[in-house]
Design goal:
This protein has 146 residues and is an alpha/beta fold. The chain has a single domain, classed as Rossmann fold (3-Layer(aba) Sandwich), CATH 3.40.50. The chain has 7 helices and 5 strands. The longest helix is centred in the N-terminal third of the chain and has 13 residues, at 34-46. It is globular, with a radius of gyration of 14 Å. The structure holds manganese (II) ion (MN). Residues 32-33, 75, 77-78 line the site of manganese (II) ion (MN).
Length: 146
């Protein structure tokens, strides 16, 4: 079962005007689950975002530094270094500290959420994703029409 409430195909074409203006924004997805990453990429691409994917943290660090995405969606459970550690490293690096990071995780306990905030993430979103809220959270960190 997917951890995302993936919208029916027909809904993807109903792109509100304020979301169409997001088309120049670039998002890095850090997610080790290939299916989830693919679904997220399809979804965000359909909404006009340019998307990169990374299945693990060290590659994500390099991509963030080299490509300077406008936003990062960060899974927490990753092979190798965790998404929290990746977040902490990105927030300590002058090259990447201003990039908003949204932690996306099924880890729902207050303890994990506290760890998420302590790592320096800018928002903490639980799986399964509620699509409308999720897109609004993303938009809230992006300069629309920039
Ligand atoms: Mn994971």
């Amino acid at each position: 079962m997917s951890t995302f409430n993936y919208p029916p195909a027909a809904d993807i074409t109903k792109t509100p005007a304020h979301q169409q203006s997001a088309k120049h924004n670039r998002i890095l997805i850090v997610e080790d689950n290939q299916l989830n990453s693919k679904l997220l990429k399809q979804l965000l691409t359909a909404y006009g975002y340019e998307v990169w994917e990374s299945p693990e943290g060290l590659q994500a660090l390099d991509l963030a530094r080299d490509e300077q995405p406008d936003l990062i969606l960060m899974d927490i459970r990753l092979p190798g270094i965790s998404g929290l550690e990746v977040t902490r490293l990105l927030k300590q690096d002058d090259q990447t500290r201003t990039i908003p990071i949204i932690a996306v995780t099924a880890l729902a306990s207050p303890e994990y959420e506290k760890k998420g905030w302590e790592s320096g993430c800018d928002a903490y979103v639980l799986k399964p994703i509620i699509l409308d809220n999720f897109l609004r959270t993303i938009e809230s960190f992006l300069k629309i029409g920039a």
